[in-house]
Amino acid sequence: MNKQVNTIKPVTKISIPATLMAIKVGETVVIPSKIIKASSLRAAASRLERANKAQFSITEQGFIDGTQVTRLK
Q1: N or C: which end of the chain has fewer CB within 10 A?
Q2: Closest by alpha carbon to 13, among 44, 32, 36?
Q3: How far apart are the C-alpha atoms of 70 and 59, rounded to whole Å?
Q4: d(Cα 9, Cα 48) in Å, to the nearest integer?
Q5: What is the Cα–Cα distance from 26 to 47, expressed in whole angstroms?
Q6: With 60 as the cut, is the pLDDT of residue 49 above it?
Q7: Tens digit of each residue's pLDDT (9 = 90 or more) over 23-45
Q8: Exposed (0-12), middle (13-18) or buried (19+): which is 62, by Cβ within 10 Å?
Q9: 31 or 7: which carries more pLDDT confidence?
């Protein structure tokens, strides 16, 4: 018998809401689009705003491969 061992690469999951909540109030960060897409950031920020947990300003203007996120509240 030919036993073949398959190996897997562990997956590192990024929690977008936790990433947004880790930003301090008044702080601005640029998140690369390769790591988290702008649409995912907007959706997570919208959910956090509806839950009255935080408020964010998100823009892609002026950035080629990134999204600027500012935590307002």
Answers
A1: N
A2: 36
A3: 9
A4: 31
A5: 19
A6: yes
A7: 999 999 999 999 999 999 999 99
A8: exposed
A9: 31
Q: What is the largest CA-CA distance in the chain?
A: 63
As a whole number of angstroms, the distance between CA 6 and CA 57 comes to: 45
Cβ count within 10 A of residue 5:
4
What's at 16, amino acid-wise?
A: I
Closest CA to 23 of 46, 50, 47, 45: 45
Residue 31 pairs in a beta bridge with: 67
* CA–CA distances in Å: residue 32 to residues 43, 49, 57, 67: 16, 22, 16, 6
